[in-house]
Structure formats: C-alpha cells, structure tokens
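Retro notes, item 3 of 5
We never archived the inputs for the MU-OXO-diiron complex last cycle. Fixing that now. Sequence and ligand:
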Amino acid sequence: MQEPVLGPIEIVDGVFWVGAVDWDVREFHGHHYHTARGTTYNAYLVKAEKAALVDTVHAPFASDMFERLRSLLPLDRLDYMIVNHVETDHSGSLPQVMAAAPQATIVCTANGEKAIRKHYQAESWRFQQVKTGDAVDLGGRTLSFLEAPMLHWPDSMFTYVPELALLMPNDAFGQHLASSGRFDDEVDRAVLMDEASKYYANILTPFDKLVERKIKEVQQAQLDIRVIAPSHGVVWRKFPGDIVQAYLGWATSAGEERVIVAYDTMWGSTGRMARAVVEGVTETGVEARLHLVPTSDRTELVRDIVESRGLALGCATINKRVTPAMAGLLEELRGLRPEGKIGLAFGSHGWGGGATKVIEAVMEDIGVTRAGDSIEATYRPTATDLASCKAAGRLLAEMVRSS
Ligand code: FEO
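Structure as it came back at the time:
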C-alpha cells in the first residue's frame, strides 16, 4: 500500500476530494484495460450542516481515504454514505466506512442496494433507496440524484449539488490518469483527452445510445453544471463543456476519416499484406495506422478502432482459424459492437485457409460494411497478391472518405 501524497483537496465550497491516487496500476478490470498512466479512485466529502461521503475507494487504498477524511470530520459524524456505483473500485472500502460510521445511511438506487447486499455483509446497514428526482437535504446543500442505469452498471447513478452546480457522475467523464494535480487545468490537456477517449472507447462504446440519451436528458433539464467530479482522474472545473461535447461526439460518430490496419502474422506473409493495405490507404491521402495485434497496446488499439471509420483485419491461418491474439481482439469487438465501420479482411495461409472466414463472420455479426471481397494469399504473397492488397486498401479508404 502506498502512503498518501496529498491532503484533502477542496474542489468547490465545502466539497473535498478524499480519494486516492494509484500511480502504479497498469492492469484494470483484471487484465482487460491497460492503465498506462495509472488511475485515481475519487471519493468526495460534502460538508454542510450534515455530511455525506460520495463513493469510497478501491479497498487497498482505504487508509489513504480515511486519513484524508479524518482530517475533516470524525467518522461518527458522517450522516450519509452515497453509493453512486457498486463496482469494487468505488465501493471496496464500504465495509470499513460502515464499521467506522455505523450510524450513516447508505443512499443508492434499488439496484445499488441489491448489488451491495450481494457484495458485502450488509445486514446491519441502513439503506435509503433513491430514484431520479429524489434529494437529500444536508442543510445548506442538497444532494439530488439522477439514475443512470447501464452507464455502466444497472446500479449507476449521478449525484448533483444544485447550490454548487456540481455533478458527481461516478465513472462517466472519467479517465484512468494518475496525477499530482486534481483538476483538468493542472494536467497536460492532450494527455487528459487521450485518456478520456481511451476510457470512453473501451468501457462506454456498447452504451453509445444511452450516453447520448442521458446527456440530452441532462441538457433538457437545464441543470447548471459548472464542475464535473468523476470517480477516476481529474475534476473538470475549467473545461466541463468540452468533455460533455466530446462524449456526445464519441456517442454519435462512427469515427474519424482513418483506417486501422490490425494484423497478426506467423512468418511475415500477412505482415507484408498488411503493409500493402497501408500503402493503398495512404495513396488516397486517408490516414492509416498499423497495429501488430499481439504486441500493440490493446487498450489503445481498441480506441483507435472505435474512433476510426475504416478497419482492415488480417490474420495468418492456424488450425483453420485465427491466431489467439486475433481471436481475443475479435471477441472484444463482438462485445463492444462499434457502429458504422467499413471493413476489409485479409490473410495468408498454407495448404488450407480459414482465418478470413472467421474475421468475415465477426464483421457480419457486428454490422461492418465490407469493402470488397477478402484478400487471401497462399504461403508467400506474390506481387499480384500485394497489388490486390494495395487496391483493396485504396477502395477501403475511398469508401471511408465518402461515408
Ligand atoms: Fe470505476 Fe465501473 O468502476
């Protein structure tokens, strides 16, 4: 466990960040998400006549949170424990909080209570279920709640403090980014948006339509939002409008005019084909990015795919199928289901094919529009095969450009 490096930080009048910075973590969700720049687990204490803790931290970081909390409030004075989302990176310290503050009432959605009871020994804990529009009066500050089911769990909700125009939306608008600064204007802006886009692409892509609907619901309600304090990364105090607009763009766009060429190869033949596809794309003036699937950063590769309209997938055939690395990527795409892609399959094989058929089936399953037939080469691609790859890359890029 690491020592706290920062005291509590007041993010707006009477609301304090009491979370933890995890500089070291490189794998999140098991091995699913590569957190190249670490992350934070943000918890916030709202102090008025009454006090509420909004979310907790991943259990190994509980002592960081408690040290910050105790400098602000004796825990037997905590009135409410707001649980916006039960995933354990946010609720993991709940047992310790409830042990230190058994008088506190847990405020969450109905699905939140169900999930908390499944995760923890919660028999003695007091719950208050809330729905959209419900509020808790802290005396001078109001916590009002907005359910956000499937953004990204059934239990998810946002907490809003109207007097401060502060939204605490848990995972939404977050970034896996460890930093010494707690605010958007204290970190490199390009790095911030890079991590925010990776986060959206890898976690929220399946929920594009729900994201769009939820943002429009908030806009129609004309909530005054000046500060967005998510549960990972920095607090948006200077550019809250930018991240909301970015989310709307990511939720509604099929991606940029760009082609991602992602491949796996055994003895280099499919690699030569991949580079020929890249040449064809490049000749049209459309940007191409090449990824060797087993060695590329998977989280960045997925983000590149989600944020680009063109996708060329190539793989050598092994045992009539794709390689394990390509199979993993295809399975991830089947789950994420990025919309509006234009695709091409290619690959080399020896005495029998199979890889392009596997890729074609996944492209069909997730609704990719194919740019021509798949390109296959036997053993080593000939000059004619490579010319076909180049022509296919050109066609793919032209279709991307006109889409
Ligand atoms: Fe950051 Fe869904 O937990």
